[in-house]
Amino acid sequence: MPISYKTACKLHDRYQIIRYMDFKTNKYIMAVFTDIDGTFIGNDTFDPGENIELLEEFDRHNHFFGFNSSKTFHEIVSMQKKFKIKYPFICETGGGIYHTKKLGFECGKKRDDYFILSESIKIHRFSDLVRELIKNNFSHDFELYDDLSQFEKSKLTGLSGSNLAQASDRDFSILIKHSGNKKSFKELSETLNSHNLNLIQGGR
Asked: What's the whole-model pTM score?
């Protein structure tokens, strides 16, 4: 049985909370989607945590598990190879959805050994538009991530080398550095909305 809310409040990390749960269910199959940062790897150090071991419990009891992250396709694939696992995942905050044979069916198109369940419009179709909007109207408060130096990118993300390259290789989103106030954020958001684009504040 799942632990009580009162007991959960006394526990200080997610691993302890999940560890005390009973994964065996007689009538139901659980579908669990989770973020990656702060759950399976550290927010600051990016070191893997013990939660990765819990995936074996999900598999053993035939539950469904998938990652849901703002990370790129290449970041998530690389992480799964490192952990020697292979689960369905959502990348770039819904931009791409990919699955494996674990779902019991196959799609025609594949990407790096993952079946493509859904992909949004590639962001390169809008990159020139976004660049012009920022250059002409918001250059004092916003800066495109792609225009930063490697040193600035590394300082901003806490990544370097191949990890930085994978985080920068985006298919469905453009990273923007915001140094202004809430007013400028709202103004750019409304401008992008008029072009059917969304501005989302990230965790980093």
From this structure: 0.81
Q: State the Cα–Cα distance between residues 57 and 74, nearest whole angstrom.
A: 26
In angstroms, rounded to a whole number, what is the distance separating the alpha carbons of residues 92 and 200? 11
Run of H or E including 82 = helix 73-83
Q: How confident is the model at residue 108 (pLDDT cuts 50, 70, 90)?
A: confident
Q: In 3D, which of 175, 125, 166 has the Cα closest to residue 147? A: 175
Q: What average pLDDT does the segment 143-159 reach?
A: 93
Q: Which residue in this structure is represented by tokens 């976004």?
A: 130
3-state SS of the chain is CCCCHHHHHHCCCHHHHHHCCCCCCCCCCCEEEECCECCCECCCCCCECHHHHHHHHHHHCCCEEEEECCCCHHHHHHHHHHHCCCCCEEEHHHCEEEECHHHCCCCCCEECCEEEEEECCCHHHCHHHHHHHHHHHCCCCEEEHHHCCHHHHHHHHCCCHHHHHHHHCCCCCCCEEECCCHHHHHHHHHHHHCCCCCCCCCCC
pLDDT tens sequence across 18-50: 444 556 666 778 888 989 988 888 777 677 777
Rg of the chain on CA atoms, in Å: 20
Report the percent of the chain where pLDDT is more than 90.
56
- Nearest Cα neighbor of 148 from 108, 179, 122, 109 is 179
